[in-house]
Amino acid sequence: MVATPHDKRGGLGDVVRRHIGFVPNPLSRRSEQLHSRIRDAQMTVSVCPYCGVGCSQHVYHQDGKILSIEGNPDSPISGGHLCPKGASTYQLVNNPNRPQRVLYRASKSDHWEVRPLDWAMDRIARLMKRDRDADFKLKNAQGVRVNRWESVAHIGGATLDGEERSSSTRASSGVTASRSG
Ligand code: SF4
């Protein structure tokens, strides 16, 4: 769902901001020009990515960039509140400290090499495909069709949220069942 924020100039909030009671608020020229950083943003309702509580969030974005992520007051779970972790979700997508490279140690090597994250993702996908092609079982010993890949497993837990469960299940089904078609 996409909506525009409620603090556009000219709305009730703007009228209140410009008055103290019925008296116009004497704003400096600089204060006149200040505005909320989300004034011209669009808002999308989302869910906190961190834990299974599933608090709802308002994600404010503009020109493909996320400007702010805040609690959704309409959420029946959290009523607009976010815990400290959820309140820091903005930094999940906007954070210069996030690693963009990985450490890779080749088989039988005695040292680590720095490689780009994209290289690592491509390598993981290639190795998974190779392993799947080698180990995929169409039928079990009794001849029953099972469509499974027995040499790989993934582990989840209570901290996976709905999106993560959905993504991991789709990924697992995609690599195990696609050969049955
Ligand atoms: S805001 Fe906190 S409690 Fe709510 S879903 Fe996110 S991590 Fe969990």
What does this structure look like?
This protein has 181 residues and is an alpha+beta fold. Among the domains are: 42-93, N-terminal domain of TfIIb; 115-173, no CATH class. It has helices at 12-17, 29-33, 84-87, 90-93, 117-135, 162-177, and strands at 2-3, 19-20, 23-24, 42-47, 56-62, 65-71, 101-104, 113-116, 136-139, 145-149. Strands 1-4-5-6 form a 4-stranded antiparallel sheet, with no helix packed on it. It has a two-stranded antiparallel sheet with strand order 2-3. The protein has a two-stranded antiparallel ribbon with strand order 7-8. Strand 2 (19-20) and strand 3 (23-24) form a beta hairpin. The longest helix is centred in the last third of the chain and has 19 residues, at 117-135. The model is unreliable at 1-7 (pLDDT under 50). The protein binds iron/sulfur cluster. Iron/sulfur cluster is lined by residues 48, 50-51, 53-55, 78, 82-83, 85-86.
Question: What attributes does this structure have?
Answer:
single chain, 181 residues, alpha+beta, N-terminal domain of TfIIb, four-stranded antiparallel β-sheet, two-stranded antiparallel ribbon, 10 strands, binds iron/sulfur cluster
